[in-house]
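Hey, why these numbers?
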Amino acid sequence: MKDLLSFFTIVPVRGASLEEAAREAPMLPLVGLVTGLPGAVVLLAADVISPGVTATLALGAVLLAAGMHHADGVLDVGDALMAHGTPDRRREVIADTRVGIGGLGALFLVYAPTVGALAALCAASPGRAALALFAGEVSARSAMLLTLAFGEPADARSSSVPFVKALSGPGRFVGITLALVVPLPFLLTTSALAPLAILTAPLVALGALRIAATKFGGIGGDLVGATGEACRAVLLVLLSATI
C-alpha cells in the first residue's frame, strides 16, 4: 500500500507515479486509517483543550496528513459549479489556478459543518469523536473509490483515468467490497444510526456521479477528491445527530 500512501498522504515513503498508485486503487479505503490517526490523537486531548479548538485542530491534522490535496478539489469544484456554460467550460474553470467565491463558499459549506459536528461529538465523548473521525476518513476514501469504480473520466488526460482502469479489472470486486466493509466497525461502535450511516458513502458517490455526468461530462481527480471531503462532512453531521 506504500504507493497509495505516497500519492494520497504526506507519509514519507518512496515517491510513486500516478500509474503505480493506481495499481493499488482497491485498497484506497485503508488510506483513511492512516490519515485519521493524527486527527484522532488530537481529539483525545479534548479534556485539556476546548471542543471547538480541538475539532478545528483535528480536522487540520487529517487535511495535512492528506497533503491538502482533496481540499484543493473542493475549492476547484466549487468554483466550477458556479460557472455558467458547457461541461467543457466548467472543466476549464477547474483547471484555472485562480480562486473564486464559489470555491471559498464550497470550502465553508464542507468544513464548517465538519468542525461543528466534531466539536459536538468531542464535547460528548472524545473517544467517540475519535472513532467517528476514523469512520469519516475511511468512508471518505470509500466514496472516492466508488466514484472511480462507477464513473467515466471526462477527459483522457484526467488523473482519474489510471484509477478507473485499475478498478475495471479483477480489483473492482475487491475495491467495492473494501469500500463497503472497512467503515463498518467504526460506524457500528459509534452511532445508533449505523444502518443509515453505512449508506453515506454509496449515496454521496451516487450524487457525485450524477453531478459529474450533468455538469462536467464525467469524473476528474478534483471531483473525486471533493466527493471524499463531502462524504466526511455528511457522515460526521449524521453521527453528531445521535448525541
About this structure: The first helix runs from residue 2 to 8. The chain has one domain: 2-240.
